[in-house]
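User
Class, as today's exercise, I want you to study this protein, comparing sequence with structure tokens, and judge whether sequence predicts the tokens.
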Amino acid sequence: MRIDRLLQRTIRTAIKAQGVGVHSGKSVKIFLKPAPPNTGIVFRRIDLDPVVEIPASVHHVVDTALCTCIGYQGQSVNTVEHIMSALAAFSIDNLHIDITDKEIPIMDGSAAQFIFLLQAAGVVDQPVQRQYFVVKKTVSITDEQSGAVATLSPFNGYRIDITIDYDHPDIPDKCSNAVFDFSLTEFVRRVARSRTFGFLSDYNSLRKKGMALGSSLNNSICLDDAAVMNRDGLRFFDELVRHKILDAVGDHYLLGYPLQGFFKGFKTGHAMNNRLLLAVLSDPDAWEIKHANELGWNV
């Protein structure tokens, strides 16, 4: 796969949306605004005085329990992974995201509405070359307790291969693995509409912990002991593993650069995604930053 994005990008015009935080249950507004070259993606807590800016960075991840949370100067923004995945798909390098609470709205549980916002805002090239995070050697981590394994390897492009492993009658083996070669077209077609999911058996305990307060069948897939509870069922036969791909794309984009590498995950989630990126970054021989023209691509 050849990526043909040589220049940095931002959105053409500002745009806003409103929704509910899946964990906080609070109504929240977001405002997407163009940003100059080399700004990066910056979340801004405009509900605070003074406003606190939180750069979207793997180094600012402060929590990975059921979502990815980034923080800076004692403040945080939760559930950034879905909007980050949409930004990665559109190759948006520079953006201000103003937010009126501490959680990005869940919308319908997927990235589809963020895709719509970006399409409506439009995208413009900026007169600065993009840089890419290039994986140079294989790095792998494991979680002894869960058996999860996450690996990043060199690859000419960006590929994701994820396998989930749930002991549930409505998640057969044929629905448990998916491989995705990254492109905007394929992301919109195969990944963007896949929704977050959870299990009814966990619902009450999560709410007692102050989580999933905004979760409903309108924004999440819920499975009881036997089947999917949503009246309309799944959008794809393998929607659950596709959503894991969506999450991985968003978590990976916290590198601050588009990724060039092959990610393979078994039973992975936000915690393993973050641990793997930090493991790669800790080894100077495992990665390098390259301009697009150094990779031999043409427009």
Observations:
- The mean pLDDT is 94.
- The two ends are 14 Å apart (CA to CA).
